[in-house]
Amino acid sequence: MSGTSVRMLRLLSLLQTHRFWPGEELAERLGVSVRTLRRDVDRLRELGYPVRAQRGVAGGYQLTAGAALPPLVLDDDEAVALALGLQSTAQSTVAGIAESSVRTLATLLPVMPPRLRRRIDAVRAMTLSAETPGPEPIPETDPDVLVVLAQACRDTERLEFDYCDADGRASARRVEPLRLVSARRRWYLVCYDLDRHDWRSFRLDRLSRPHPTGIRFRPRDLPAEDAAAFIRRQLDNVPRPYEIEVLLHTDADTAARRIGRWATLEPVDDEHCVLRMSVDQMHWPATALGLAGVEFTIRSAPELTAMLAEWSERFARAVARGRP
Description:
Blueprint: H1 3-15, E1 21-22, H2 23-30, H3 34-46, E2 51-54, E3 60-63, H4 76-89, H5 97-108, H6 114-125, H7 143-155, E4 157-164, E5 170-183, E6 186-193, E7 198-203, E8 207-216, H8 227-236, E9 242-248, H9 252-259, E10 264-269, E11 272-279, H10 283-292, E12 296-298, H11 302-322
Antiparallel strand pairs: 1-3, 2-3, 4-5, 4-8, 5-6, 6-7, 9-11, 9-12, 10-11
Helix pairs in contact: 4-5, 4-6, 5-7, 9-10
């Protein structure tokens, strides 16, 4: 890289701090004359960077907000911090944040030098989360898998990968990827399955060894409003073995604050509401009822009654053993 190019990148890095730089100080930091600095600033403007100049004795330069976001220059620490922040927000439940983070990771990680990738991997390996778990453990998704899939979606490039379904059956898949969707604390790939000749969704924690084939495709029409609606429809249609209905002796607002979004609550009157859940196992509704901290009456699911009876006896024995 030529000396001029290196100097331009250094100038851009300094201006991106968004502080006001006196002209003489900025020229001294770059080791150039004030006249050379003015020429470099003009080159940045030609590239689309909105650099504001202030004339006079107290004159200087500052990078201002423009109509479009120009390319950014990051030092090593900034690049690592950005990548780690994006990997964290990739698990966000805030609408739009997770998908945007994955798209940005797909742009950032492939151009990062190996030394920075090693720093990111070290931080991830030595960091634990203290988030309170939900009804089930959050499946781990490899960020590298996210990046490969996001790039294939962006580039409309066919993918091949191995998949293991809920029953443990392994298969090789060839797909035309459309979008990645984060829903109910899991990641899904929405794509057209070339062997099944239909639209499918695949959980990323069950997907392995994805690799692009180099074959581009023209996107097909998805039979849904968008990929998120496609996933919601599929999840809503998944049969669950237990339907829970419980009468809570409290109002719906209080129950919602204590139980959260894992149940449907229907007001009955100012002092009662009905809790409904569709679940695979009884541990979560039992825990939710305990967290509610109110009286309740079970209307359905005798399996839940049996579990609470067993828990009650076990807790009572523990209390008895703990007494002097």
